């Protein structure tokens, strides 16, 4: 396959939007953690709070990995475009492939984080169901 400059350029808007979404997830987690901290200081139900803390810690680590792999994908795409400008098509193909693999890993981390997030919501729902 012959790679031209427009192919990796297609990833720019996708990766940028993906990083924006990851940043929003990080900010949402930060808000949850701050809220949980104040709840922890005044709540007696420590098991629920500890479960949520463990859940948030896992999610925070996943978001960090998602962002790192997304940024790596972006950097590899830029390096691919530089290689194309330098007429190094073989190197550009490898860089573009590495960029796609990095993006795939980032999306996989995102999927795992979404599943953990769903479990966190189930913990909240079970707490409300137990109160009835």
UniProtKB/TrEMBL annotation:
InterPro entries, per database record: DUF2721
This protein's UniProt keywords: Membrane, Transmembrane, Transmembrane helix
Pfam families assigned: DUF2721 (PF11026)
Highest taxon listed in the record's lineage: Bacteria
Transmembrane segments: 12-33, 66-85, 91-112
Protein name (record): II family cellulose-binding protein
Organism listed in the record: Reichenbachiella agariperforans
């Amino acid at each position: 396959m012959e790679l031209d400059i427009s192919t990796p350029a297609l990833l720019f808007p996708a990766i940028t939007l993906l990083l924006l979404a990851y940043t929003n997830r990080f900010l949402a987690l930060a808000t949850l953690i701050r809220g949980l901290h104040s709840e922890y200081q005044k709540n007696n139900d420590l098991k629920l709070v500890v479960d949520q803390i463990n859940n948030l810690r896992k999610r925070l680590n996943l978001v960090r990995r998602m962002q790192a792999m997304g940024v790596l994908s972006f950097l590899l795409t830029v390096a691919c475009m530089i290689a194309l400008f330098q007429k190094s098509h073989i190197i550009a193909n490898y860089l573009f492939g590495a960029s796609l693999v990095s993006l795939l890993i980032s999306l996989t981390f995102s999927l795992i984080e979404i599943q953990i997030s769903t479990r966190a919501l189930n913990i909240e729902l079970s707490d409300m169901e137990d109160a009835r």
